[in-house]
Amino acid sequence: MNKWISRPDEVDALVEQWADAFPQYLRAEAKTQYSGRPVWALTVTDHERDNDDKPAAMFYKPHAHEPAPIAAQMNVISQLLTGQELDGTATALPREEILANTVLCFMPDANPAGTAAAPVEVWDGTQYTNEEFWAWMRGIDPETGKMWKRVDVWDDTVEDPLPLRYGIVYEQVSEHEYVEPNRHRRSTLMQWVFELRTRRQWQRMLALHQTEFQGQMDNAMAILPCLYDKQPAELQEIEAAWARRIVEAWATVPGGRPKQEIAPLGYTGQQRQYFVDLWGDMYQDSAILTSEIRNNSLLCPFQLEQALNEQVIEVTVAELLD
Question: Which pTM value belongs to this model?
């Protein structure tokens, strides 16, 4: 089997296979998108043990144009459940220790409808320029022929002009409405995040992203919350140490070139306000980081995209075991 799995139909089939084969270790739950596709929350632990006091981590991939975090999560889950990577290689992870002592919830793809609409399985820089890629991401602006605007929610009966092609980053939530998953509470991602937070305390929450690092040689970056300076000091210390550990681990991956600077999310204006409004309360009680791995670049082959994403997951799990 190929080590890279990111297409929604392949993800669904594998999740169903795993749920049947490993009921002791996997609880597979789904919320259904307006499109009809399931958005999985996959809780991996030894469910026959008392899980109330286990440290927990939540991993989630919001954006449909960033497929490497899907492949990475699916390969890590495979190792935890089967003892093997998806290609049959024996895992190097301390599988039994992880299952016995942590609770891990993976959301491999928060917008599978968008992922299914992508023209490629992986963005590796061989088929689309970044401008063409961005037009797939947010849609084609009919006035410029380039990327359409970025908003938290839009209605195709109201917007004028409409994009010539709807961007795959947006999740359709009703007949005419679309949202960006990590910027609006009606997205399936945020429905899951809010529900999961009612179930238990999450010691780590990791948002898995990709970006283009245009004009740079870097291929990985750890980002602190935009409200980092207003977080409790204890969380600041945890996040800073966690982020530094991630950057150091990326440097050990062959081809890894992490950005050494670690800083809060640098958005300003409305883009920043989306996070303040939606995530602000969470920043007060959970350690939260964002990882960015290079996307759509000949400088970062898809195997490296996957490896860097897997590394950040593995470091986060190691944080729980320490």
Answer: 0.98
